[in-house]
Amino acid sequence: MALADLRRIAPPRAGRRGPRAGEGRWALLFLAPTLVGLALLSAGPIVAAFGISLTSWDLLTAPEFVGLDNFFALFRDPRFLIALRNTAFYTFISVPLGMFLSLGLAIALNQALRGIALIRTAYFLPVVTSATAVGLVWAWIYSPVDGILNQFIGVFGFPAQKWVSDPFWAMPAIIVMSVWQGLGTSVIVFLAGLQGIPQEYYDAASVDGAGRWSRFRRVTLPLLTPSIFFNGILALIGAFQVFDQVYVLARPGKPTQATITLIYFIYENGFKNFKMGYAAAASWILFLIVAALSVVYFRSQRRWVHYQ
Amino acid sequence: MARARVMRRSRRTLLYVLLIAGALLMMAPFFWMLVTSLKTRAEVFGAPPLSLPTGPHWENYVRMWNALPGVTFGTFFLNSLKLALLNTGGQLLTCSMAAYAFATMQFRFKGPLFGLLLATLIIPYQVVLVPNFVLWRSLPNPLSASGSFYGTQEPLWLGAWLGGAFGTFLLRQFFLAIPNELADAARVDGANPWQIFWRIYLPLARPALATLAIFTFMWSWNDLLSPLIYLRTLDQYTTTVGLAFFQGQFVGKWPEMMAGAMVSLAPMIILFVAAQQYFVRGIALSGLKG
Predict the structure, then answer these.
(1) B83 and B50 in one domain?
(2) Separation between Cα atoms, residue A76 and residue A7, nearest integer Å
(3) For residue B68, what pLDDT is reported?
(4) Which CATH number fits the domain that encloses residue B284?
(5) B 36-65 residues with CB < 8 A to A
(6) Which sequence spans correspond to the domains of chain A?
(7) Do residues B68 and B174 both lie within one domain?
(8) Residue A297 CA to chain centroid, in angstroms?
(9) Residues B235-242: what's their mean pLDDT?
(10) Distances (CA, A) of A120 to A106, A184, A294, B178
(11) CA–CA separation, A215 vs A307, rounded Å?
């Protein structure tokens, strides 16, 4: 398990033998692109972002050192606070919702039924499509005038809603689209987990007189905790990256601020208003939140994740 | 006994009904996209929403294709294709190189370096959006009119030639499963590490390479944020930015917009149907083996 292993990365295998002569130099050659990438594009820039966050910089004039002013300003900026709140709301709703739905689905899709492969494909397909393209059709579904959703609820006598232009419905509408699109990924992870549970465990449980529910509760669920853990981290990170759906469905700020997310806030300040220091400070807060949540989450796996 | 069988059968039928209903619901947006792309605008607003088009109005696709001055949608499509292929090539080469080093070699700082790489999997790449933008904007680029990489497509693919955590991890897992004896035999015959990598490890890793290729292609093809930030002119746009731009230009022209969305989805849908096993394996592998 990729991410779960972070906590317990084995030290380099001291191995059956010492390093071969010249191996260090060969390793450097093979790793050269990766090292440059880490320094310039992924790990290094996290430090650089902190440096930039200490400046006021519009890219046209020289950056001016302002200390932690950007951070203080952020926490007084109502738009940033709304972005934080929206992202938190999105995370708290979409992560558990996606988890429950995909676990139930994976169990259903794990049955040996005729035509199951075709049915699975239908659930997986949205995963590979771009949020931009499918966002357009969702914009049409949610269209406040005569979108299909309004027509549909009209049949039951409900009044038309403005959905993504409505402060109350905007975020739920984004969440529904995101869950629809992301479901397949976690179903696949759960399916792989389910298929890794040895049949003997179920047989043994049945012999002991365990019913359906207690087999699920005592065998499936504990042995699926690695998959639950992995899906959890994927969903958590994904929840902090919401941008495309928001950009296409409800470019915030026009009718309402109800859909600004953290990433949208960074995009808006960095690349529309060219306030680099301010955007970098917001990026660093994003980094701190994700890092802190990950540490807490990885720490927690000792208590509830069972590796076979 | 008979009652138990009836129960089992009806439970199975219920499961079928639910799964198929769910599958139809999952497919509904695509169906709706296709149907709308073939309707006239009058049908979209006049006829009941679930009615089928009076005929396939392919002219929506033609209008969409030629909607913007100076460029066709084909330009966006080719730009997306070019970037996706360049990204895929870069990731395949540089991730497999790094994976080979991590899987087969002993060197200083191996553990910490691998840990650092894995940690970048967790940090959203948007965190480094600002510094990366500053970097590309300040690097001199003699080939562009502006003298920098800002406003060119290069920032959208050059980074893919500098490794990546997902691909390196995926391939390392695969390389670890290849028995050492193969490399040892080649070494006795005088092969150097590059030859062992190129002639033995890479060919054996074809399934994992296919998985990485498909994922990289998908990420590149579907990316919206980076092209939005770096591209300045219509002729450089990818399908995603092109579609978003469309949306701003053609408010309410749903048939044309849906036609654009259909065209931009087509390659991914074809790729998915052709290579579903690699998609599934990629998600399952990165998730559960190790």
Answers:
(1) no
(2) 36
(3) 86
(4) 1.10.3720.10
(5) 36, 45, 48-50
(6) 70-304
(7) yes
(8) 14
(9) 95
(10) 9, 9, 31, 31
(11) 18
233-262 in chain A: CB under 8 A from chain B: 233-234, 237, 240-241, 243-244, 247-248
Per-residue pLDDT of chain A (308 residues; tens, 9 = 90+): 444 444 444 444 444 455 677 888 999 999 999 999 999 999 999 999 999 999 999 988 999 999 999 999 999 999 999 999 999 999 999 999 999 999 999 999 998 888 888 899 999 999 999 999 999 999 989 988 778 888 888 888 888 888 888 889 999 999 999 999 999 999 999 998 998 899 899 999 989 888 888 999 999 999 999 999 989 998 999 999 999 999 998 775 554 688 899 999 999 999 999 999 999 999 999 999 999 999 999 999 889 998 87
| A6 in contact with chain B, both atoms CB, cutoff 8 A | yes
Count of CA atoms in the C-beta half-sphere (13 A) of B109:
8
CATH label, A70-304, candidates 3.90.1580.10, 2.60.40.10, 1.20.1740.10, 1.10.3720.10 = 1.10.3720.10
Q: Does A42 contact B128 at a Cβ distance shorter than 8 Å?
A: yes
Q: Give residue A11's pLDDT.
A: 44
> Whose CA is closest to B128, among A147, A39, A163, A88?
A39
Q: Considering only alpha carbons, which residue of chain B is nearest residue A38?
A: B117
Phi, psi of A56 (to 5 degrees): -110, 120
**Where in the sequence is the domain holding B35, given as residue range(s)?**
2-60
Measured between beta carbons, the chain A residues lying within 8 angstroms of B245 are none
- Do B19 and B152 lie in one domain? The reply is no
Q: What token pair was written down for A77?
A: 């900026």
Q: Are residue B66 and residue B101 in the same domain, yes or no?
A: yes
Contact B129 A28 (CB under 8 A): no
Residues 20-39 of B with CB under 8 A from A: 20, 22-24, 26-27, 29-30, 32-33, 36
Residue carrying structure tokens 């026009």: A254
